[in-house]
Amino acid sequence: MGIHFYKLHCGGNSFVLVDTTEKSNNNIIQPENFARASIKLCSRKFGIGARGAIFLLKDNLVRIFDGKGNEDFKSWDGWLCTSRYLFDSGKISGKNIIIKTPVYNELIQIISSRAFSFDLGTPFQMESGKVFNENDGQVLTTLNTESGTISAAGIHLGEDAFCSFASNNIGENFEDFRTKVISSFPNRKVNAVILKPITRNTLLLRTSRAGLSAACASASAALITSVLAGSSDKEGLAVINDSGFSNEAWFFSGEKKSTGQEFSVTWKDDNNVIIAGSGEYIFEGIFDLPKFKD
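Now predict its structure.
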């Protein structure tokens, strides 16, 4: 079965999007087979390769599954990819997008053709569950790594993120930091994040992308960590940089454009966090999906 798909990414977290309402995709795959299809589509050896699969049905109903076939009802990164596709395909009108899931609906505001925003909710301290506010100062945990002792802030905002400032040569030892975070929290899926303030409203970060909302959650956690440390304002641009911290001049080159790697993050006075960004296309194509037997 040849199924038409789009591959998009949000902060490097990639998704395969299948619009089941397309005429060419009619009756190729039924909802009861979405989980099995996601495993095939996301396989990096035998499929397209992605973190998750997005299935778009009529009336903007969205079903999102990870590469193991588990459904996720709140994939922020996936929503930004879906919003971009819905806008570009002309499936929405007005100033908002209503994304429907099997359990609730989410309101996405359209800022521009390349920027969509929504409310992520209130940030919590990852381990204690304490609600953060801007006057708290950082709640730090100490990890001992091969590169030395690291103090980091654990933040929960949809997903868990463990954030540390870049210091000494930590930017070059991200894998050491990530490994230590994983081993320190064996029963939790935690995004390891290293951040570096460039200006009061610009942050550079690296993240492990441990979940389907990892890019949005990591960008938000990075800003919160920096605000609590007194290094950033409550509104700024967080940029995910895969190559470490050697490309700072990119911000000032005069050639900056949306790449799906950056997110505008605002920590509002009501303590909620608003994120704005967009999914970006990687490629599209036809995938020969095997016929599923009941």
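The two ends are 16 Å apart (CA to CA).
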